[in-house]
Amino acid sequence: MLQTDRGPIAVHAAAPTAGDGPRATAVLVPGFTGSKEDFISVLEPLAAAGYRVIAVDQRGQFETPGPEDPAAYALPELGADLIALAAALGGPVHLVGHSFGGLAVRAAAIAAPDRVRSVTLLCSGPGSVHGASQRERLATLIGALEVFEVTDLWAIIRAATAGEDADPEPEVLAFLERRFTSSTKAGLTAMARQLLDTPDRVAELAATGVPVLVAYGVDDDVWLPDEQGAMAARLGSEPVPIAGAGHSPAVERPAETAAALSAFWLAADSARVEIEPVEAG
Fold this sequence. Notes:
By secondary structure, this protein is α/β, with parallel strands linked by helices. The protein contains 11 helices and 9 strands.
């Protein structure tokens, strides 16, 4: 647990073991129904590239506590948590947001750009999801959460998705159940609703001047690659498609994802040094 002035946040952390210390600190923020464990495979290569990396559970996700108040999970609140985390970590950080996590990262950067070295939107989009199947699933989940407790909902979800994909190993399946059933009902509901109605704030993010990377799996089916590529153009950046990945590049192609992140951070930090000279001491 990492303590902040907005409460404790559960983290996985990795740091370089050689050299003069980390180049900078990066915070990795998971998506809807995700957790810090979604980034496990990129922690070691990012640390080897010279960065201190902190993967988090957002409030109400898995091991980070959260209240049963939907208002507590509004994107400005989640963004404020990340700003507080940056302060607890000692200064501006690189923020990486996967899927819904990208919306929270964007909120943090718009609210406090001075606390952010860069933003990476990883398989995230300019606003709400548009795909009919994705929107139907979210609406169904919201309806189910009005009737069932989270602990009961896992079995219903498993039954509804039977046959769609091969089952993971038993220990992975047990972890997925534990993670989902540990999440707060208010958090799941509020995040799902925001995936359905979040407005496009790309222009506001661009106006901050914070460097932005848009990266995505070439087979992403939540926000489509064309939509993410168009968002990158609006942000004045070159999109980075990751071959062989769908909606979870950090899981599916960790080496390629880590390489894209570390290269972007190095370029962003180099530009930052040129613009803002480091003071002695």
